[in-house]
Amino acid sequence: MEGSPRLGPKGLIKKHEFVRILIQCLYSIGYEKSASCLELESGISCKSDDFQLLESQISSGNWDGCVDTLNAIKDLTDDTRAAALFLVFKQCLLEYLSCGDDKLAVAILQKEVSALQVDRDKVHNLARSILSWKEVEQSKIDDNAVRELRKKLWQELEKWLPSPITLPEHRLEHLVETAVLSQIDSCMYHNLSDEVSLYADHSCSRDQIPTETVQILTEHKNEVWFVQFSNNGEYLASSSSDCTAIIWKVPEDGRVTLKHTLRSHHNPVSFVAWSPDDSKLLTCGNVEVLKLWDVETGTCKHTFGDPGFIVSSCAWFPDSKQLVCGSSDPEKGIYMWDCDGNELKAWRGMRMPKILDLAVTPDGQNLISIFSDKEIRILNVGTNAERVISEDHSITSLSISGDSKFFIVNLNSQEIHMWDVAGEWVKPLKYMGHKQSKYVIRSCFGPLNSTFIASGSENAQVYIWNRRNSRPIEVLRGHSMTVNCVSWNHRRPQMLASASDDHSIRIWGSSLSNKIQPQKLS
């Protein structure tokens, strides 16, 4: 409509279109009287003239008129017109068969339907349905059923026909959601799962993410190499070169307390992994065996493999009954076990390189491993399909997003690379600003759709990125030596833990919600 008045400060919104989708919205949310009044007052109908005519013709069974109307609409593509006509002829055939007019039904099938450029399988299926109808001698469809079928037909056509003939379903809601999502996407600090208000433009402050130390844990007697929150956010596990691992309790008030110290290892413990149901914990080290612990009692339930079998990393499958581990010894490869130590599967042999790190996607479909320093192997567990990604620099660690779609690797080139699990990306997204050249540094995804990435650093700082930006949005200072590992509490989006060579774990929180002095726990 060329001369349609415009709305909005920039004049981008056509008034006629805006009123029309507003009327559609009122109808869809149940305000039929208001919608009808607005149609009357504005002179604008929710449905176009073409579609109102089509709806009237379908309701009265005027199939010839219906076909003429569809053929007369100029803005239809050939495929859409054919698909719409097929639906009309299908209903027409059904009604002729119901009335016992088999010859007319067959004639339409042969002359009209067969001439349409539609999938031949659809035509054949329609023909078979005619034969089936005749064989079982179906009785005539009653008037109420006919009305319902005709109503269903124009509802289907409403989805097929393009705008402006029809409007996409829930158009106004879609436009508003798109605007809200755009504001969320442009918000570097968005870390809330709460609903976003429409009353004001959305923007979060840095107080939405953890930026200040709220607690310092000093129970470990040597360098702390690994830290990870449980899946339910109620526990924290840490491991250290002091040959212990610790299970910490995270109560409602957020003040972390010691639950169990796990002392069965004889060498440094460099890795822990929570079972998906958080009832069990795995611990291992570069010169250590793999052990399984009961979280509630703190007792060791099983030691896997012989004393010479050294495990570098481990992971769980979603059922919390199967686990997998990788060995840093060449040829030992990857083993899959149940919780009783029964070997379920193994990838090993002369051609198997040492495994530096591995992880299972939360959906259990893919096993991702780091081997030969610079290569990433993505194995589909169900199909055994395999894909290998090669990096130019040595990889030290791996982390997977909670939705199983992405993973990040830390490189000793002082970059973090993010890849998609599906393999659609040609190049990774890159994040930089932290320091890493000599040690194993581990990063993690943040909560809320894995929007954030956090990483330790060799300069004693913690770095946080919004994954849409290659440069960090926050740098957290407090540790005095290398920060080896970080973990974000996915059930408490404003809680982050970091493990350092300074023998401590720092708990980071929001500057707004934690106006208390950091306390040490030792």
From TrEMBL:
Q: Which residues form the CTLH domain?
A: 47-104
Could you tell me which InterPro entries the record lists for this protein? Answer: CTLH_C (IPR006595), LisH (IPR006594), WD40/YVTN_repeat-like_dom_sf (IPR015943), WD40_repeat_dom_sf (IPR036322), WD40_rpt (IPR001680), WD_repeat-ST_regulator (IPR051350)
Pfam families noted in UniProt: LisH_WDR26 (PF23627), WD40 (PF00400)
Repeat (WD) residue spans along the chain: 217-258, 262-303, 476-508
Kindly give the SUPFAM superfamilies that the UniProt entry links to this protein. WD40 repeat-like
Q: Which Gene3D superfamilies match?
A: YVTN repeat-like/Quinoprotein amine dehydrogenase (2.130.10.10)
Recite the UniProt keywords alphabetically. Answer: Repeat, WD repeat
Checking PANTHER family in the record gives:
WD REPEAT PROTEIN 26-RELATED, WD REPEAT-CONTAINING PROTEIN WDS HOMOLOG
Q: Give the protein's recorded name.
A: WD repeat-containing protein 26
Q: Which organism is it from?
A: Prunus mume
